[in-house]
Amino acid sequence: MGITARRPGEQDDVTQSDESAQTTPLLTEIDHIAIAVPDLGDAIDYYRETFGAVVDHREVVESDGVEEALLKVAESYVQLLTPTRPDSTVAKWLEKRGGPGIHHVGYRVADCGVALESVKRQGFRVLDEEPRPGSRGTTVAFIHPKDALGTLIELVEE
Ligand code: CMX
Ligand code: CO
């Protein structure tokens, strides 16, 4: 994180921005809210029976050790996530938390590489040094929750 840059004569103003700060909006839409669950079938049933939500897409993402079910809500998704193997980060997260809950937020970006570079340039830790393939043929990169207000962020380019 950079030090706040001040030009001579400028006021001490909390709204003043760091020179390295991103000034044009990078996040274009909410792509998905990811909810980690121990049983995908039960979670799908809950959303269908309670809200009439139906599965739009289902996929195993072997590199992340997860299976997802995407439920469309307007232009965004609820991503129900369950681990496919015990060493999956989602398995570890569920065990630590002791049950289901919100695991991360996926934001749409026009260009994942540009957004990731901007985050890195500002000194925030990322979990992917380069954009990589996500589900549905997307390109994604994750930002470390400890540098993102305690929220794991996924940048999603469609
Ligand atoms: N949200 C917020 N904080 C989280 C978190 C999450 N999802 N997961 C872990 N943390 C916190 C932990 O609570 C812990 O905090 P404390 O040190 O204060 O206890 C800290 O981060 C480190 O956590 P950890 O249990 O040691 O977990 P790991 O470091 O092994 O892994 C993370 C955490 C975020 C680095 C890892 O989950 C990761 O790399 N995630 C990116 C990939 C991913 O999540 N894939 C699955 C989804 C795929 C998809 O959506 O398509
Ligand atoms: Co996701």
- Quickly count the helices: 3
Question: Cα-atom Rg, whole angstroms?
Answer: 18 Å
Quaternary status of these chains?
single chain
Q: Give the helix proportion (percent range).
A: 10-25%
- Unique ligands: carboxymethyldethia coenzyme *A, cobalt (II) ion
Report on the structure:
With 158 residues, this protein is α+β, with helices and mostly antiparallel strands. The chain has 3 helices and 8 strands. It has an 8-stranded mixed sheet. Strand 6 (132-133) and strand 7 (139-143) form a beta hairpin. The protein is globular and about 50 Å long. The chain starts with 26 loop residues before the first strand and ends with a strand. The protein binds carboxymethyldethia coenzyme *A and cobalt (II) ion. Residues 34, 61, 64, 66, 79, 81, 89-90, 92-93, 96, 103-104, 127, 134-135, 142, 145-146, 150-152, 154 line the site of carboxymethyldethia coenzyme *A.
Spell out the key features of this protein.
158 residues, alpha+beta, 8-stranded mixed beta sheet, 8 strands, 34% strand, disordered N terminus, binds carboxymethyldethia coenzyme *A, binds cobalt (II) ion
Summarize, please.
With 158 residues, the chain is α+β, with helices and mostly antiparallel strands.
Q: Mind sketching the topology for me?
A:
Elements: E1 27-36, H1 40-51, E2 55-61, E3 66-73, E4 76-83, H2 89-97, E5 101-109, H3 112-121, E6 132-133, E7 139-143, E8 153-157
Parallel strand pairs: 1-4, 5-8
Antiparallel strand pairs: 1-5, 2-3, 3-4, 6-7, 7-8
This protein binds carboxymethyldethia coenzyme *A and cobalt (II) ion.
